[in-house]
Amino acid sequence: METSSEETQEKATTLKPQALAPSVPTSIDLLQVPRAVLENLLLKQLAAFPKSDLLQVTKLMGINSHLVEELIATLRKKSLVEVFQSDASPSHTHAGRVVYALSDMGSQEADVAFKKDAYIGPAPVSLQQYNEMVQAQDVRANLVTRSDVTAALNEVYGAERLISLLGPAINSGRALLLYGDAGTGKTFVATRLLNSLNTSVYIPYAVYAAGNIIKVYSPQHHRKVHQEQSQSIIFKGQYDQRWALCERPSIQVGGELTMDMLEVNHSEHNRVWMAPLQMMANNGIFIIDDLGRQPMPVATLLNRWIVPMEYFFDHLNLPNGQQITIPFILTLAFSTNLDPEKISDPAFLRRLGYKIQFQPLLEQEYTALWDKLAQGRQLEIASTSFDTLLSLHRQHEVGFYPCLPKDIVGISRDIIAFEQTEPVITSEILSRAWEVYFTADGKGGGKR
């Protein structure tokens, strides 16, 4: 039950920014980033994109052209940047344009800059600007209503039993614990919660804090609402291009989560300092799935969140040994199919604002979901197949988990395609699909 690209596009066009757009800085001082940091970033841009013209450099830096010209002028005085005439053919529209490139000394300086910090992208925003924007985009500022949550969960079968619990939970801004058997839809529901918030947010490409550039925007975790605006000297109707207007982030991590992902860190081969997951998830939702399956002890992971959950801010250790404080304004959702009483102590459970148990579907909801998914695969279900299906559930004591129809319908379709039979899920095909999906005890698939 994934959202189609058409639905995603329609959603993006209806989202409105919750906060006022960040204004376009008209001076170096208003950028609130040291000039030396901007100069080094410009050197790295010209090293990566040699012989770029003013418009290209402006788009790369995400700041206005007259500020770029000011930085280039400074670098030219230091003999780090040279000016060239474009060698485009006379018929080319950019013939004769002025382009910029590094001198030999500039290339050496760029190499030094890359060794200190490999970040390349739009200029960073200051930590103060970031904190102010996150506060302005607090999800609790615009309360959601029952109709908002109902619309967000319109594709979730059995959602009416959850709406009265999830709505107040979203408005509270407090952490959630979603628990219940595997396959009951905990993660799917959690990822749909943000659809109840009909607002978009500004995400910085990077943040400058205590001598470090921290990359925040990630195409993997953030989805832009629309294309970037073109840069020009006309400021009316524009906003600071060091920010991307995005849907509220929804970040999900499971058993692969390590403590390093929750601190400012970089990959083994790339010295770009990346924001931790919770910083990327600010103003959105951060789902820790399969709680109890992570490599570290559950107590260690849960203790990491005590201060952020209580005070709505987080302390981060930086690569240079300094520490910064950032807002922790997001919906933190833990999801587990283990017994909460066995994986966490009572003191931590008390700190969780909402503990919501997920149950299997009712029979009517379950069969309706089967019908919908079969139709989506252009398949019919034989009249006797539901009797077979319910019999298998009783025989093997398997609940009506919402994950089962999608998986078993998919296997049935594979069998039908292979056998080249009519597109009908018969009792015989259903039984075969059930047999290959579940383990020998008849429960392995549903308890994944």
UniProtKB/TrEMBL annotation:
Protein name: ATP-binding protein
Coiled-coil boundaries: none
SUPFAM superfamilies in the record: P-loop containing nucleoside triphosphate hydrolases
Keyword RNA-binding: no
Domain of life: Bacteria
Presence of keyword Nucleotide-binding: yes
SMART domains (alphabetical): AAA (SM00382)
UniProt GO MF annotations: ATP binding
Domain AAA+ ATPase intervals: 172-362
Keywords: ATP-binding, Nucleotide-binding
InterPro entries: AAA+_ATPase (IPR003593), P-loop_NTPase (IPR027417)
